[in-house]
Design goal:
Pnp Oxidase, Chain A; 9-stranded antiparallel sheet; single chain; 206 residues; elongated; 6 helices; alpha+beta
Length: 206
C-alpha cells in the first residue's frame, strides 16, 4: 500500500496477473479464503446454469483450474454439449473479482482421477455414493443416501463404490478478467491466453 491506501498492483498489469494467481492458489489451499469457492456457469438448452463449487486445483504453469463433481450431474451433460464455461470468484474483503473463461475437460475413471481420489477424505468420498443422480426429482425430502449411511461414515469398501461417480473437471483458461473496487477509482484488466501463453494484456474501463 502507498500513502493513498492503494495496493501496489493498482496500476501494474504484471502485478495484477501475479495477484490473480496468488489468490487462486491460496483459494485452493485455504478453506477460509474467499476464493476457495467459486461459481461455474455452463450452457443448457434454455438458460445458462450456475452453481457453486470448491476450487480444488490452480496451476499457474499450465494455466488450468479444477473442481470436483458427480459424473451424473447436469453440468456434465452441459459440458459435453458445450465445453465453454465461465468461472466467477469474488472477495468482499479485498474488493477483487476474478472472471475466468475457458474450456472444460471431464476426467472420470482415468489416471488423473485415480490419483486425486486417493487423497480425498472419506467424508468427501461419501458424497459420491448417493443412489440417484444429483438433481433427480423426488416426492419427499431426502439426502440421497441409504438410511444406514445418513448419520454414519460408510466403510472403505462402500466408499470405493463412489469412485465411478467421481469426476474431475479441468478448465483450460483462455481469458482472465480482473476487477478491483476502490473509492479513488476502480481498475479492470483483461488477460487473453493461447497455447499456455499470454497473448494480450490490457486495461478495460471498469
Amino acid at each position: 500500500m502507498n500513502e493513498l491506501d492503494l495496493p501496489n498492483h493498482y496500476d501494474d498489469l504484471d502485478l495484477i496477473y501475479n495477484e490473480i494467481w496468488t489468490s487462486l492458489i491460496r483459494g485452493k489451499k485455504d478453506s477460509k479464503s474467499e476464493f476457495h469457492q467459486c461459481y461455474v456457469s455452463t450452457h443448457s438448452d434454455d438458460y445458462p446454469s450456475l452453481r457453486t463449487v470448491v476450487l480444488r486445483h490452480a496451476d499457474k504453469e499450465n494455466l488450468t483450474i479444477s473442481f470436483h463433481t458427480d459424473i451424473r450431474s447436469n453440468k456434465i451433460n452441459h459440458i459435453n454439449d458445450n465445453p465453454n464455461v465461465t468461472v466467477l470468484l469474488y472477495s468482499h474483503d479485498k474488493k477483487i473479482q476474478i472472471q475466468i473463461k475457458g474450456t472444460a475437460e471431464i476426467n472420470n475413471q482415468n489416471e488423473r482421477t485415480s490419483e486425486v481420489w486417493k487423497n480425498i477424505r472419506s467424508f468427501s468420498k461419501k458424497c459420491y455414493i448417493v443412489e440417484q443422480a444429483p438433481g433427480s426429482k423426488s416426492d419427499v425430502p431426502l439426502s440421497g443416501y441409504l438410511p444406514e449411511h445418513e448419520k454414519a461414515l460408510p466403510d472403505d469398501e462402500t466408499l470405493k463404490n463412489g469412485y465411478k461417480n467421481f469426476a474431475l473437471i479441468d478448465i483450460t483458461i483462455e481469458k482472465l478478467e480482473w476487477l478491483y473496487l476502490h473509492r479513488y477509482g476502480h481498475r479492470r484488466a483483461l488477460f487473453e491466453i493461447k497455447n499456455k501463453e499470454i497473448k494480450n494484456k490490457q486495461w478495460l474501463t471498469p
